[in-house]
Structures are given as C-alpha cells and as structure tokens.
Design a protein that fits this description.
By secondary structure, the chain is of the alpha/beta class. The chain contains four helices and seven strands.
Length: 159
C-alpha cells in the first residue's frame, strides 16, 4: 500500500537498549479514517479539541484520509497547520476502512490508542467516559464480539 504521510510534528527518538522509543510520545493517540467527510471535519475537530482539553493529557490526533474525492484532505491539512497535535496520513487511493485503521495504528505513538469514525457517529465527549485519572486505567475497555448469524446473509424480503 502506497501512502503519502504529512507529519506536522516529527517525533524525537532515543535508543533504549535495542529499542528506539519516541521521547515526545503523547499519552493518547486518537486515529480516525476519513473518506469524503468534508462537512464533518471542522465540527469533529472542535469536539475533539474540547474533549481533549477536559482530559488534561497529552494527545495526538491522526486523521487517515482514505482517498477522499471531496475537499477532506485540504481541510485536514488546514487543521494540521493550526493544531500541532494533528497528523495527517493521505492514502493515494481508497483502500477501505480496515487498511486506513491499520495505517492509523501504525502511525500512533501514544500509550493508549482510541479509534473513532470521522462521520460524527462517535461523540468525542465519550473519550472521558473511557478514562479515569490514570493513563494505565485506560487499558481496560469495553469490547464486543459478533456471534454467528442465525440466517443466511442472502435474505428475501416481501414485496
């Protein structure tokens, strides 16, 4: 997968034994796949900004543009120019949500990773509900598992 990565803040690193770690790594990395979300991006970023201000923790916001054909990428670059926490990854074409999420995970430097959708389906204010006063406490999280379906994926509906 080819990617263009526009990093607004480059990570300083140091060698610790055989490992190379980020010196200025944030506590939280929020990553969001973006596909044609132009009208949602500014309101979303404002909500993220408010939610992160309430947490009082260091954070980065990674927007992964998955080949948007609207003005999403231009808005993301504008947000990155104004907010040093923002990092933008621009995929050359639409690869789909899973590869976009993988790119966000790969780029994340935080101890805690928080995936979100860019379509405002997830309320950034809920980030606080996942958290307590300790970053270590955020390692517990709600999770779900899809169970086997009881009917065929090809269903007939009455006319």
């Amino acid at each position: 997968m080819e990617t263009i990565v526009a990093e607004q803040t480059m990570s300083k690193t140091k060698d610790v034994g055989a490992e190379r770690i980020a010196v200025d790594a944030p506590e939280i990395s929020i990553f969001l796949p973006v596909l044609n979300e132009e009208p949602n991006l500014r309101p979303l970023h404002e909500k993220l900004d408010r939610a992160l201000a309430q947490l009082g923790r260091t954070a980065e916001i990674i927007y992964v543009d998955d080949g948007s054909s609207d003005g999403s990428l231009a808005i993301l670059r504008e947000l990155a120019a104004k907010d040093p926490r923002v990092r933008v990854i621009a995929l050359r074409r639409n690869y789909g949500q899973t590869p976009a999420m993988a790119a966000g995970i790969h780029a994340a430097r935080g101890e805690v990773l928080i995936p979100m959708d860019a379509d405002l389906q997830n309320d950034p204010a809920d980030i606080r509900r996942l958290s307590t006063n300790s970053p270590k406490a955020m390692t517990s999280f709600p999770a779900g598992e899809r169970t086997a379906r009881t009917r065929s994926s090809l269903a007939r509906f009455p006319r």
